[in-house]
TrEMBL record:
Enzyme class label: transferase
Keywords, in A-Z order: Cytoplasm, Methyltransferase, rRNA processing, S-adenosyl-L-methionine, Transferase
Keyword Protein biosynthesis applies: no
InterPro entries membership: Alpha/beta_knot_MTases, RlmH-like, tRNA_m1G_MTases_N
E.C. number: 2.1.1.177
Binding-site list for S-adenosyl-L-methionine: 110, 129-134
Protein name as it appears in the record: Ribosomal RNA large subunit methyltransferase H
Annotated catalysed reactions: pseudouridine(1915) in 23S rRNA + S-adenosyl-L-methionine = N(3)-methylpseudouridine(1915) in 23S rRNA + S-adenosyl-L-homocysteine + H(+)
A GO molecular function held by the record: methyltransferase activity
Subunit structure, as described in the record: Homodimer.
Length: 161
């Protein structure tokens, strides 16, 4: 069974997002070993922090992220400059990984400041959910649903339309 991890910086605070993510996490159990790893967000005290302060926080978060990735897993960095792909293309990416013998995948959602350059460089795929900005908690729900949708596509199920 393929291992799929979702590594997130920050916690789900809203009950409705947590319930949605939990539902798709439960459904994913039929297709993959899916786990969510929550890492703490680095605190930035200054409201208008300098680029250097933000970079330092991102670098610290990046080390924690990379330290949480399973050995050999393909990292998918969720970032605005990433490639926009369809549900079918995401399904194909997961299938290709599963069929390669090195099937583990780690999706990464950074903090509100984004992801460190180190994480982006380590990524096998930089993936964007579009040009819109959404809260990280909503992004986690949407991504979890898309991973589930990709798994149903690969299984030939009718969920995907």
């Amino acid at each position: 069974m393929q291992n799929i991890d979702l590594i997130c910086v920050g916690k789900l605070n809203a009950k409705y997002f947590a319930e949605g993510v939990a539902e798709y996490q439960k459904r994913l159990a039929a297709f993959a070993s899916f786990r969510i790893i929550e890492l703490p967000e680095e605190k930035i005290e200054e409201k208008n922090a300098s680029d250097a302060v933000v970079k330092k926080a991102l670098d610290k978060e990046g080390k924690a992220i990379l330290g949480s990735v399973r050995k050999g897993a393909a990292i998918v960095a969720m970032c605005i400059e990433g490639k926009q792909i369809s549900s079918d293309e995401l399904a194909q990416f997961l299938a290709d990984r599963a069929n390669s013998g090195a099937g583990d995948v780690a999706f990464v959602i950074g903090s509100s400041h984004g992801l460190s350059d180190e994480v982006k460089r380590a990524a096998a795929l930089k993936f964007s959910m579009g040009r819109i900005t959404m809260p990280h908690q909503l992004a986690r729900l949407v991504l979890t649903e898309q991973i589930y949708r990709a798994c149903t596509i690969n299984a030939g199920m009718k969920y995907h339309k």
